[in-house]
Write a structure and sequence with these properties.
Layout lengths: L1 H14 L51 H9 L4 E2 L6 E2 L4 E8 L14 E6 L7 E6 L5 E2 H8 L4 E9 L2 E10 L4 E7 L10 E2 L1 E5 L3 H7 L3 H4 L1 E2 L6 H4 L12
Antiparallel strand pairs: 1-3, 2-3, 3-4, 4-5, 5-11, 6-10, 7-8, 7-12, 8-9, 9-11
Length: 245
């Protein structure tokens, strides 16, 4: 079951189905800073450089930290509970581990952790981590990310047609910091500082690292040129069209 689940996750990361959406495909509404639940302040550690800055996350660095080292870090992290006691094979080339957040255990019949997933090289001489995708209870606002890391290097807005309806996958890419955030909406996204971003993944900075998150994204992204309207950044593909709903 876990192998199937991770294979699905890899596809999900490429298709941006990791975003938190309701049954209509509408993204969560941006959360104002004043409305934050202080009990979840720990999820903002990475934005404060605690304990390290991206692409490092919780002392795990893509293409530097080995899978065994990452597992040790997870076991010693008080925010983490129930990290996999073993490293699993996802594909012939990739392995994975997942974890729960402390105070938020998975249900007895769940096959996935509440905390996220980490992918690593399986058969290289040194099985280094290639991608870290933590799951958080609340979205981040674009303004929170900009305050910590400045404006992004690239953006991609890609329409996807599903059951005769167009959904918009938006990727905010910090190529040289080694992370990407995303969201998915059933409406044309408003590229503003209040935009809610639900998905997050860390990778080795650069195009090769981004391709571990999505092989297609390096060819689909465009350089960030400030806050523009939706049509300025949207790029149509075979599944949908910009501005059509």
């Amino acid at each position: 079951m876990k192998t199937v689940r991770v294979l699905l996750l890899i596809c999900v990361l490429e298709a941006l189905l990791v975003s938190c959406t309701d049954s209509s495909g509408q993204s969560s509404v941006a959360v104002e800073n004043s409305e934050r639940d202080n009990s979840y302040e720990w999820q903002y550690r990475w934005l404060k450089g605690i304990p390290c800055r991206a692409p490092c996350w919780e002392n795990i660095v893509p293409e530097q930290t080995t899978a065994e080292q990452a597992l040790t870090v997870m076991r010693n992290n008080p925010l983490v509970s129930n990290p996999d006691n073993t490293l699993h094979r996802a594909t012939p080339d990739l392995g994975f581990l997942d974890w729960d957040w402390t105070g938020n255990p998975r249900t007895s019949n769940a096959t996935e952790g509440t905390g996220g997933i980490l992918l690593y090289h399986k058969d290289l001489p040194i099985n280094t981590v290639i991608l870290i995708s933590p799951l958080f209870p609340h979205p981040f606002t674009f303004s929170e990310v900009i305050q910590a890391y400045g404006e992004p290097s690239h953006i991609a807005i890609l329409p996807v047609k599903q059951q005769d309806k167009i959904y918009y996958n938006t990727y905010i890419i910090y190529l040289y910091n080694g992370f990407v955030l995303n969201t998915r909406t059933s409406f044309e996204p408003d590229i503003s500082i209040d935009m809610a971003l639900e998905g997050l993944a860390f990778f080795e900075p650069g195009v090769n690292g981004l391709s571990t998150y999505s092989e297609k994204l390096p060819d689909q992204m465009v350089e960030w040129n400030g806050f523009r309207n939706f049509m300025y950044y949207c790029r149509s593909d075979n599944d949908g069209e910009c501005g059509v709903n």
